[in-house]
Amino acid sequence: MKIAELARQVRLAHSRIGGRVRRTPVIEASVPTPYGPRQIVFKLEHLQYSGSFKARGALNTVLGAAERGEIGKAGVAIASGGNAGIAAAWAAAQIGCHAAVFVHGRSPQAKIDRLRSLGAEV
Q1: How far, in Å, are 75, 110, 122 from residue 82 at the CA level?
Q2: DSSP H or E stretch at residue 102
Q3: What is the distance in angstroms between the CA of the first residue and the CA of the last residue of the chain?
């Protein structure tokens, strides 16, 4: 894929999800290393609605599919008992469609509870 096409897709994603996701802060820290202190930059995506950066991609994917008429009554389905499943359930809830999330039998109850609180069928 060419750089111009990638740039177009990034702009399109930004226009889709802008205002629907949190603008999370960036902080800098000086970290000691054997070679002297180094500046580290942290993007605090754990403050996103889904608890991870995955909300951005999930919302872009769901909104894009909705724009193309690819999401019907069936909604979205994902196999993930983690942050990707939570992000997909959150994104589906944003447009009012059904989300089915298939989780592993040993998924933490806290993740399952979060999925259900977002309206997902688990």
Answers
A1: 19, 10, 12
A2: strand 99-102
A3: 36
Evaluate if pTM is beyond 0.85.
yes
Task: Quote the CA–CA distance of 106 and 26 in Å, as a whole number.
Answer: 34
In tens, the pLDDT along 14-27 reads 999 999 999 999 99
H or E element in which residue 14 lies: helix 3-17
Rounded Cα gap, residues 55 and 111, in angstroms: 15
- β-pairing, 38-43 vs 76-79, is unpaired
Task: Please answer whether residues 49 and 66 qualify as being in contact, where contact means their C-beta atoms are separated by less than 8 angstroms.
Answer: no
Per residue in 17-74, pLDDT (tens digit) is: 999 999 999 999 999 999 999 999 999 999 999 999 999 999 999 999 999 999 977 8
82 within 8 A of 111, measured Cβ to Cβ? yes
Are 108 and 80 spatial neighbours (Cβ–Cβ below 8 Å)? Answer: no
Q: How far apart are CA 26 and CA 43, in angstroms?
A: 4
Amino acid at 61: T
